[in-house]
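Holo prediction — guanosine-5'-diphosphate.
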Amino acid sequence: GTTRPQVRIVIVGHVDHGKSTLVGRLLHETGSLPDGKLEMLKEVSARRGMPFEWSFLLDALQTERDQGITIDTTQISFRTHSRDVVLIDAPGHAEFLRNMITGASQADAAVLIIDALEGVRDQTRRHGYLLHLLGIKQVAVVVNKMDRVEFSEARFTEINDEISAHLIELGVTPTAVIPISARDGDGVAERTQNIAWYKGPTVVEALDALTPARPLDELPLRLPVQAIYKFDDRRIVAGRIESGQLKAGDEIVIMPAGKIAKIKTVEGWPVTPVSGPQSAGRSVGITLDRELFIERGDVIAHTDAAPRDTRRIQARIFWLHHQPLSVGANILVRLGTRETRANVVAIEKAVDPGELASVAAKSIARNHVGEITIALLHPVAADPYLDNPRTGRLVIEVDGRIAGGGLVMKIEGGQRGTV
Ligand code: GDP
């Protein structure tokens, strides 16, 4: 069938401000619950003599998922008018940061929830900082439990002003700030009488308006070279297309050397005939119209949209090694299929995910996040993470073991592919 744009969101906010309740509501309001689920949970609550809570829904689905009962709910998701919204688990700051930075999970957008009575708390501010750290630019703020403040517009405006100022300072402009009662449903899928003064989008509308991540095959071509093979006297360059598309006849540049050639033929890999353009996710073998020096670690791109070659990269990393990372450290960096030795020349920032606050930046401890500048022994072709989530990631090894992973934030020097 037709694929609907998918957006992956994470819901963050101070404990008890209503995250699970909002998810339960959203599942219900968007008709995404399995038949009878709601009724069953209501019945169970009644039998146990406890009031029904919307958060039970999320608990129940998560339990089923963990126990593998419901095969098709490996992830919790719901449908808005034009989007599939997938909920990314945020079990804790450290895990969430690690997963996001190392690429295990990826959120395109976030919902930040604030209890209308409690207002903006320290934890709320730290969550803003977390989103900033991860480069999540689309953030919808919901001011929940408006029923607890008699749906006061003045109280809403107060919180709106405070959180907006905080987020904007962090470089994040909220896409919407929405007054709701997750428990009663106001503002979730409907602008009820209680919030008649509010003219903005509901939560469902705000989610529907999120911009999905650009599909990988619409990004510029990036084919990191895995290997070169001799096959029937032909030299075949094999690799996986990480982004973009290619076809026979395309003019390409081999980075970082900047040598230009044309694609003569495209094969599937292992060698199988293919025809037409091949796109992101496919493993291919290509032959070129001339003999050029090319090796594992090179990146093939189109001449008009080549990555930059650089020996100096600024990265935001999650550190996993028991030995803290310090300035001067000699590390091995993997970028795509390229491996090169590198030196840590500066540590600009170190952040303790538990506190979500910067700590003295002399070194980066295990399970901490840091911003570092590294000098590479050999030039590499790289993209900033914000331009390309596939080629904008790096892995750091120490003594042959993975010691950290992260995002390429900035590429210093270098230039776009040239001959
Ligand atoms: P979480 O820790 O952020 O997931 O918060 P929960 O969703 O578990 O909610 C915490 C408590 O707040 C629960 O007792 C909910 O019933 C209550 N709650 C959530 N939303 C609302 C709301 O809109 N109005 C009121 N009055 N209570 C709410």
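READOUT: Residues 307 and 382 are 6 Å apart (CA to CA).
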